[in-house]
Design a protein that fits this description.
single chain, 364 residues, alpha+beta, Thrombin, subunit H, Pdz3 Domain, six-stranded antiparallel β-barrel, six-stranded antiparallel barrel, 7 helices, elongated
């Protein structure tokens, strides 16, 4: 029997898109109500830990509603809900982190908090589509803002506990428990390139969980729930989260600049499906070169057309720095290892001959 595999981007219904607990007996700082603590007396320590994590973090998790303004023939401009997802409080200035696909296509955004019936308006201050990250800023603050506790993802181990918080199917502030099933996954994102170093977990993730926090057993943020692979459209033990180390790298830029400032070559790359017909898998074919960009200064050339309308393939990049490349995805992640101002070697084919040049990376 053949199974059709869907990539379901959890939040937007209109689009798709710790080490061993015995060794780490640290219990998160709890805000568990006294009534609940009393009722926990007969539970196992592992159960108490999860309960404490929930109560210590639930106040940092929000629901994000995406609203689009449309023109209606009879009523003029009307607000149409596009879907909803989750998010978490990043700092005490009112910045909310969520997935890009949660806010994609929206004009207005409404944020709601745990045990607070009021709806708070928010606006997008920056997005990183290729990392599926977005930052919202509250226009009005609630009385209390509790930022999530930021952890690290570089020392995660397969098999350790993972807890997912969010609003699956609109059921607000739900928690599910699982483990980290794998690390370092490369998953196709909504930005046209793969997202590297994704965390795979079997903690149940469903529609509405996108943008919510993935936590370790100390209640620290280790990732942002982003998507699932499913044959049924619901959680099947294959959930993926953007690692917190990636989030920590890009969110400050989005808050400060409204965008990610990263190094680039100043070129366009021919789509893989088209390039394959002309050059196979030899490398990444340059479609155009920005005349003021870094690649142009290094002598790289793009596609050309003669007086008869015939098109000629330009330079084909085969290696950027130490990494061999075959397309846009490879180039994007090769440049991700460098910073603006770095000078790197670029190997390329020109009329079938291997050549090398040096490119000083510029800000895109």
């Amino acid at each position: 029997m053949r199974f059709l595999v869907y990539v379901l981007c959890i939040a937007n219904l209109s689009s798709c898109f710790a080490k061993d607990e015995v060794e780490r007996p640290i219990v998160p700082k709890t805000e568990t109500p006294s009534k609940v603590i009393k009722e926990m007396s007969d539970l196992l320590d592992a159960e108490k830990r999860i309960i404490n994590v929930y109560h210590s973090v639930v106040g940092s998790v929000v629901n994000v509603s995406n609203i689009r303004v449309s023109d209606n023939f009879f009523y003029g401009k009307v607000e149409v809900p596009q879907g909803s997802g989750s998010g978490f409080i990043w700092n005490d200035q009112g910045h909310i982190v969520t997935n890009f696909h949660v806010v994609q296509g929206g004009d207005n955004f409404v944020v709601t908090f745990h045990d607070d019936s009021k709806q708070y308006k928010a606006e997008v201050v920056g997005v990183a589509p290729k990392k599926d990250i977005a930052v919202l800023k509250l226009k009005e603050m609630p009385k209390v803002l509790k930022p999530v506790s930021i952890g690290s993802s570089k020392d995660l181990l397969v098999g350790q506990s993972a807890l997912a918080l969010g609003n699956p199917f609109g059921l607000d502030h739900s928690i599910s428990k699982g483990i980290i099933s794998a690390l370092g996954r490369k998953i196709q994102g909504v930005g046209g390139v793969k997202i590297h170093d994704m965390i795979q977990t079997d903690a149940a993730i469903n529609q509405g969980n996108s943008g919510g926090p993935l936590l370790n057993s100390k209640g620290e943020l280790i990732g942002m729930n982003t998507m699932i692979f499913s044959t049924s459209g619901s959680s099947s033990g294959l959930g993926f989260a953007v690692p917190v180390d990636t989030i920590k790298r890009f969110v400050p830029q989005l808050i400060k600049h409204g965008k990610v400032i990263r190094p680039g070559l100043g070129i366009g790359i021919l789509e893989d499906t088209i390039a394959e017909r002309y050059i196979g898998d030899k490398g990444a074919a340059i479609s155009f070169v920005d005349p003021d960009g870094a690649a142009a200064k290094a002598g790289l050339r793009g596609m050309m057309r003669d007086n008869y309308g015939r098109i000629y393939i330009g330079d084909v990049i085969t290696q950027v720095g130490d990494q061999k490349v075959k397309g846009l995805d490879d180039i994007y992640h090769a440049l991700d290892q460098h910073k603006i101002g770095d000078t790197i070697k670029v190997k390329f084919l020109r009329e079938g001959k291997q050549k090398t040049t040096e490119v000083t990376l510029q800000a895109l």
